[in-house]
Write a structure and sequence with these properties.
Blueprint (H helix, E strand, L loop, with lengths): L1 H22 L8 E10 L11 E4 L11 E5 L2 E9 L12 E9 L22 E8 L2
Antiparallel strand pairs: 1-2, 1-5, 2-4, 3-4, 5-6
Length: about 140
Amino acid sequence: MKKFILLFFASFFIFSLIISSSCNKPPYKPDKNVGGYVIAKEVCKANEADDYWLIDLTYNYDTPQYGDTLILNGRAYTNVIKVKGLDPRLKQIGMTVAFDFKTITADKVQTTGCSVANPITYDLKELFIINQFEIR
Protein backbone atom coordinates (compact mmCIF):
# COMPACT_ATOMS: atom_id res chain seq x y z
CA MET A 1 0.00 0.00 0.00
CA LYS A 2 2.87 2.39 0.80
CA LYS A 3 4.36 1.74 -2.65
CA PHE A 4 1.01 2.58 -4.25
CA ILE A 5 0.73 5.88 -2.34
CA LEU A 6 4.36 6.75 -3.13
CA LEU A 7 3.80 5.94 -6.84
CA PHE A 8 0.60 8.03 -6.84
CA PHE A 9 2.35 11.10 -5.38
CA ALA A 10 5.35 10.71 -7.71
CA SER A 11 2.99 10.54 -10.73
CA PHE A 12 1.05 13.55 -9.50
CA PHE A 13 4.28 15.52 -8.99
CA ILE A 14 5.53 14.75 -12.53
CA PHE A 15 2.12 15.63 -13.99
CA SER A 16 2.13 18.94 -12.08
CA LEU A 17 5.59 19.80 -13.42
CA ILE A 18 4.51 19.15 -16.99
CA ILE A 19 1.39 21.28 -16.67
CA SER A 20 3.14 24.16 -14.92
CA SER A 21 5.98 24.28 -17.43
CA SER A 22 3.58 24.48 -20.36
CA CYS A 23 1.66 27.33 -18.71
CA ASN A 24 4.74 29.52 -18.38
CA LYS A 25 5.27 29.97 -22.13
CA PRO A 26 5.20 33.54 -23.39
CA PRO A 27 2.10 34.53 -25.38
CA TYR A 28 2.11 34.15 -29.15
CA LYS A 29 3.51 37.18 -30.95
CA PRO A 30 3.05 37.54 -34.69
CA ASP A 31 5.99 38.16 -36.95
CA LYS A 32 4.80 41.62 -37.95
CA ASN A 33 1.98 44.08 -37.36
CA VAL A 34 0.87 47.05 -39.48
CA GLY A 35 -1.90 49.60 -39.43
CA GLY A 36 -3.58 51.28 -42.33
CA TYR A 37 -6.69 52.58 -44.01
CA VAL A 38 -9.12 50.76 -46.29
CA ILE A 39 -9.03 52.81 -49.51
CA ALA A 40 -10.72 50.71 -52.21
CA LYS A 41 -11.97 47.33 -53.36
CA GLU A 42 -11.21 45.50 -56.54
CA VAL A 43 -14.21 44.59 -58.66
CA CYS A 44 -13.44 41.27 -60.29
CA LYS A 45 -15.46 38.33 -58.99
CA ALA A 46 -19.21 37.69 -59.13
CA ASN A 47 -18.92 36.75 -55.44
CA GLU A 48 -17.66 39.99 -53.90
CA ALA A 49 -16.29 38.08 -50.89
CA ASP A 50 -13.53 36.82 -53.22
CA ASP A 51 -12.33 40.29 -54.21
CA TYR A 52 -9.19 41.97 -52.90
CA TRP A 53 -9.34 45.09 -50.72
CA LEU A 54 -6.70 47.81 -50.95
CA ILE A 55 -5.04 49.03 -47.76
CA ASP A 56 -2.85 52.12 -47.37
CA LEU A 57 -0.25 51.20 -44.72
CA THR A 58 0.51 54.72 -43.52
CA TYR A 59 -1.31 54.68 -40.18
CA ASN A 60 1.98 54.45 -38.26
CA TYR A 61 4.67 56.92 -39.33
CA ASP A 62 7.45 54.33 -38.98
CA THR A 63 5.90 51.55 -41.11
CA PRO A 64 8.46 50.09 -43.51
CA GLN A 65 7.81 50.40 -47.25
CA TYR A 66 5.93 47.13 -47.83
CA GLY A 67 3.57 48.29 -50.56
CA ASP A 68 3.53 50.20 -53.79
CA THR A 69 2.65 53.70 -54.93
CA LEU A 70 -0.84 54.15 -56.35
CA ILE A 71 -2.86 57.09 -57.62
CA LEU A 72 -6.54 56.52 -56.93
CA ASN A 73 -9.25 59.09 -57.67
CA GLY A 74 -6.60 61.78 -58.02
CA ARG A 75 -4.97 61.03 -54.66
CA ALA A 76 -1.47 59.58 -54.31
CA TYR A 77 -0.86 56.73 -51.86
CA THR A 78 2.67 55.56 -51.10
CA ASN A 79 2.45 52.21 -49.28
CA VAL A 80 -0.51 50.26 -50.69
CA ILE A 81 -1.04 46.50 -50.53
CA LYS A 82 -4.03 44.27 -51.21
CA VAL A 83 -5.61 41.65 -48.98
CA LYS A 84 -8.13 38.85 -49.34
CA GLY A 85 -10.33 37.64 -46.53
CA LEU A 86 -10.96 41.03 -44.99
CA ASP A 87 -13.47 40.75 -42.15
CA PRO A 88 -16.92 41.99 -43.29
CA ARG A 89 -16.97 44.50 -40.39
CA LEU A 90 -13.82 46.13 -41.82
CA LYS A 91 -15.05 46.41 -45.42
CA GLN A 92 -15.70 50.14 -45.31
CA ILE A 93 -13.72 52.74 -47.20
CA GLY A 94 -11.87 54.89 -44.66
CA MET A 95 -11.90 52.23 -41.92
CA THR A 96 -8.71 52.17 -39.85
CA VAL A 97 -7.44 48.59 -39.61
CA ALA A 98 -4.50 46.62 -38.26
CA PHE A 99 -3.07 43.29 -39.34
CA ASP A 100 -0.80 40.68 -37.86
CA PHE A 101 0.96 38.96 -40.74
CA LYS A 102 3.84 36.72 -41.67
CA THR A 103 4.43 37.57 -45.31
CA ILE A 104 3.85 40.07 -48.08
CA THR A 105 4.60 38.93 -51.61
CA ALA A 106 7.90 40.14 -53.01
CA ASP A 107 6.32 40.90 -56.37
CA LYS A 108 3.06 42.49 -57.41
CA VAL A 109 0.10 40.13 -57.76
CA GLN A 110 -2.01 40.42 -60.87
CA THR A 111 -5.66 39.60 -60.33
CA THR A 112 -6.91 37.08 -62.88
CA GLY A 113 -10.02 35.04 -63.55
CA CYS A 114 -12.45 37.93 -63.29
CA SER A 115 -16.09 37.02 -63.79
CA VAL A 116 -17.68 40.48 -64.05
CA ALA A 117 -17.94 42.87 -66.96
CA ASN A 118 -15.46 45.75 -66.80
CA PRO A 119 -13.33 44.51 -63.88
CA ILE A 120 -11.31 47.01 -61.83
CA THR A 121 -8.07 45.45 -60.61
CA TYR A 122 -4.72 46.66 -59.32
CA ASP A 123 -1.29 45.08 -59.56
CA LEU A 124 -0.05 45.36 -55.97
CA LYS A 125 1.78 43.24 -53.42
CA GLU A 126 -0.43 40.96 -51.32
CA LEU A 127 -0.37 40.76 -47.52
CA PHE A 128 -1.42 37.43 -45.99
CA ILE A 129 -3.52 38.10 -42.88
CA ILE A 130 -3.08 36.16 -39.61
CA ASN A 131 -5.23 38.42 -37.42
CA GLN A 132 -7.14 41.59 -38.21
CA PHE A 133 -8.99 44.20 -36.22
CA GLU A 134 -10.26 47.77 -36.28
CA ILE A 135 -8.09 50.51 -34.80
CA ARG A 136 -10.22 52.80 -32.66
